[in-house]
Amino acid sequence: MSESSCDSISNSMIMTCFCGELTRCFTSRTSLNPGRRFYRCSKPNVHFSLNIENCEFWRWEDSSSENSSIEVNLLKSKLEVATLKMENLSESLNAMKIERDNLKKKLENLQSLNYFEVNKSRNLEAKVLKLKMLCILSFTVFVVFVVAIFK
Ligand SMILES: [Zn+2]
C-alpha cells in the first residue's frame, strides 16, 4: 500500500498495536482509498530482518464494522493456521517421544547384552587360567616322575 505519514499528529488517535506499542498514523495514497487515514504498527515491515518484527496490525481511522469483520476473519484464519501448525508440531513431538522411547529400549537391550558378554568373557578367562594351572601342574608331575625314574 502506498502511504505517507500523517501531517497532523495532534489529531491522531492513541492506539496500540499487537506489540503493545503506539501505532503510527499514515494516509493512504491508493486509488481505492485516497486520502484515507489508517494506523499501523510503528515497526518497519522488513521481513528479512530477524530483529524487527512488524505485528502487521493496521486499522482505518474511520474503521467501520465491515473492516473490523474483515480484520476479525483475517485474525481467525491466522489463528487457524497457527492452531494447525501447533497440532503438527505436537504430532511430531509425540513421534519424537516414541522414537526416543524406542531408542531407550534399544540402549537398555544393548547394555544388558554388553553385561552378558562381559560375564561370558570373564568366565572364559577363568577357564583359561584353570587350564594353565592344570598344564603347569601336569608338567611338574611329569618332571618329578622323570627325575624319579632316572635316579
Ligand atoms: Zn506492532
Radius of gyration, in Å, reads: 41 Å
Mean pLDDT rating: 85
Number of strands: 4
Strand fraction = 5-15%
Order of helices and strands: EEEEH
Distance between the termini: 121 Å
Task: Summarize the biggest pleated sheet.
Answer: 4 strands, antiparallel
The helical percent reads: 55-70%
Strand order of the largest sheet: 1-2-3-4
Write down the overall geometry. Answer: rod-shaped
Q: Find the structural class using helix and strand composition.
A: alpha+beta
Number of helices: 1
Low-confidence stretches: none
What is the number of domains? 2
Bound molecules: zinc ion
Protein name: GRF-type domain-containing protein
GO molecular function: zinc ion binding
Keywords: Coiled coil, Membrane, Metal-binding, Transmembrane, Transmembrane helix, Zinc, Zinc-finger
Coiled coil: 72-113
Any overview of this molecule?
The chain is α+β, with helices and mostly antiparallel strands. The protein has two domains: 3-63, no CATH class; 64-126. The protein is 56% helix and 10% strand. A four-stranded antiparallel beta sheet has the order 1-2-3-4. β2 and β3 (37-40) form a beta hairpin. The longest helix is centred in the C-terminal third of the chain and has 85 residues, at 65-149. Residues 17-19, 21, 41, 43, 55, 57 line the site of zinc ion (ZN). Pfam families: Zn_ribbon_GRF.
